[in-house]
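Exercise 7b. Backbone tokens:
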């Protein structure tokens, strides 16, 4: 490839070839006729051939010009199509966005935002990937997600973070444990009852385990679950005392919150992404709605 290769020169050449006129090509390209003439001369010098025979009212392509146009026209068409598609991506008329969120977050927090996004930008397809926070961190780092909703804590040296919601972890129980209703109990006393918790792979469970370890208590629940909503259901049928996130739990009249002498620290639901320079327009707009 020649060092002074310029796609713009070939664009000008193609316009002149198609219009058979320097002036018409200039109007199409929104440049001066002089600029078109200079570009054609520059391309002729670069290739070492004459491309057009100049007439008073029109130009006639040479044999070399006909061969050149036949070769470059498909490429220029493809490039123009690609540029138009990129412009549609920038205007949010087309595209896609990969969003990571646990099913509980998607169901109890994200749905109204997804509805709003679809109303504002129906051409940008959302791919919602259900993953735990731990899995979402890995997918973000690998570039397989654009954004992800995760439970704190977040390593802010690796990810950009936007706080979305405060989260309160609480213990709930059903009627079989009514003697605990309204009573303040210690963390140690709590652990004498059958506990139901999220599985250890979750960021939420890891955070709670670490908090109890600060009090010298190792949690050993009788039941580990992978679904937050099941924690509520299991507590309702009195299989044990469940640890749930208040904001995502439907605590009805059959259930009550236990009162701990040391409530668990408040956590956050965060929107995270890798900021590697310029964000896509879709990613910026999605972050802005939160």
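Sequence design result:
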């Amino acid at each position: 490839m020649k060092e002074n290769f310029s796609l713009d020169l070939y664009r000008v050449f193609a316009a002149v070839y198609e219009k058979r006129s320097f002036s018409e090509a200039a109007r199409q390209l929104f440049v001066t006729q002089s600029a078109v003439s200079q570009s054609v001369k520059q391309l002729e010098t670069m290739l070492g051939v004459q491309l057009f025979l100049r007439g008073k009212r029109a130009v006639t392509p040479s044999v070399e010009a006909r061969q050149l146009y036949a070769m470059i026209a498909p490429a220029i068409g493809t490039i123009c199509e690609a540029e138009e598609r990129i412009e549609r991506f920038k205007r949010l008329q087309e595209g896609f966005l990969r969003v990571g969120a646990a099913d509980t977050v998607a169901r109890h927090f994200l749905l109204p935002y997804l509805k709003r996004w679809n109303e504002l930008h129906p051409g940008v397809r959302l791919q919602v990937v259900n993953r735990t926070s731990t899995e979402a961190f890995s997918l973000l780092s690998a570039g397989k997600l654009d954004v992800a909703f995760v439970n704190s804590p977040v390593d802010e040296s690796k990810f950009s973070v936007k706080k979305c919601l405060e989260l309160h972890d609480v213990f709930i129980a059903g009627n079989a444990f009514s003697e605990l209703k309204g009573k303040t109990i210690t963390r140690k006393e709590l652990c004498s009852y059958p506990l139901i918790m999220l599985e250890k792979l979750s960021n939420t469970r890891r955070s709670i385990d670490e908090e109890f370890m600060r009090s010298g208590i190792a949690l050993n629940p009788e039941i580990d679950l992978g679904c937050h909503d099941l924690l509520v259901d299991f507590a309702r049928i009195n299989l044990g005392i469940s640890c749930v996130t208040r904001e995502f739990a439907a605590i009805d009249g059959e259930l009550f919150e236990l009162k701990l002498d040391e409530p668990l620290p408040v956590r956050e639901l965060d929107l995270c992404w890798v900021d590697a320079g310029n964000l896509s327009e879709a990613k910026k707009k999605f972050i802005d709605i939160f």
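Instructor comment: The radius of gyration is 32 Å. The chain has ten helices and 14 strands.
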